[in-house]
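INFO  loader      accepted 1 record
INFO  loader      residues=328
INFO  predictor   begin
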Amino acid sequence: MAAALGGLGLLQGRVRLAAAVAATSSLGRPGRRAPVPRGAAAAAAAAALLSAGRSYGSEAKEEEELRVRYLDDEHKGIVVLGLNRSQAKNALNKNLLKMMSKAVDALKSDKKVRTVIFRSEVPGIFCAGADLKERAKMHSSEVSSFVSKARATINEMANLPVPTIAAIDGTALGGGLELALACDIRVAASSAKMGLVETKLAIIPGAGGTQRLPRTIGVSLAKELIFSARIVDGEEAKSIGLISHVVEQNEAGDAAYRRALALAREFLPQGPVAMRVAKLAINQGMEVDLVTGLAIEEACYAQTIPTKDRIEGLLAFKEKRPPRYKGE
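INFO  predictor   done
INFO  writer      dumping C-alpha cells
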C-alpha cells in the first residue's frame, strides 16, 4: 500500500495537467468559460490525506468524553468513535473537540482503518450541538476561536480518506447535525430528531451547516429548514435525502448503529486503495464542473492501476475466490 499511496503524491501534477487540458479545450468554444482550476488544487490537497504515516494501535482506547474502539473479528478494520458526555447531552466543548481532533489525526494515517462510524454512547442523544453553558463563560474573543476550532475539526472528519458513517440514534441538533453532515453516509432511527436550530439563538450554523446541508438536500429546502429552525424526525429526514437509511428503534436504543455496522461490513471486502481514491474522486469532482471532474477521475483511476491489490483482485476473479487485499 505504501507504494500505491506514495504514487498518490503524484496526483497533484496529473490532475492539474488533466484539468488544464480540459480547460484549454473549453476555451476554444465561443461563449464558454474555462473551468475553475480550484478542483485540481482541492484534489491535490485531499490527496495529501491519503499519504501513509504513523500507525495507531488496534486495541480499544477509552477517553472520558470520547471512546475510540477498534473492532475485531468479522468487523476488523472498522473503528467506532463514541461521544460520551452524558451529563451534557454530548454537547461539543473544548475538551471534546480536542479529543476528536486527536483521534481523527491518528485515524487518517492508519493503514488498517477501512471505515469509521460516529455514534453516541449516551442513550437518546447523538449530539445537542455546542456546549452553550461553556460558551456563556467565554469572552467574546474566545467564541470566534471556538467556532473556528469546531469548523476545523469537523472539516478534518470530512476529509478522512476512508468511508465515514454517522449513526444517529437520538437527537442531533446544531453542531451535532453538522458533525453528521460531514460524514459520507448518515443512518438514523425513525425516532431521531435532527435540525439546524441556530437561528433561534440569532446566529447561523457555523461549522459547515450552511454549506453541507444545501449540497445534501438542495438549496431551497436547506434554506427553509435553516430559516425556520425546523426539527425533523428520521422518516422525514429520509424523505428529503438528509439521511440514507432509516430504521425502527430497538429496545437497546442502538438500531441506527447496528445498521451502520452492517453497512460498514459491506465496505470491508473492497480494495482499500480503491476505496480511498474513489472517495477522493467523488468529493473533489462534486466541487467543480463536469469536464474538470472527469479529469480528476482519470487522474485518480490511474493511481489504482499499479497496485498489488488490483493484481490480487483480477487473480481472485479468475480463480473464483474472495480477494485477499492487503492495502498495497
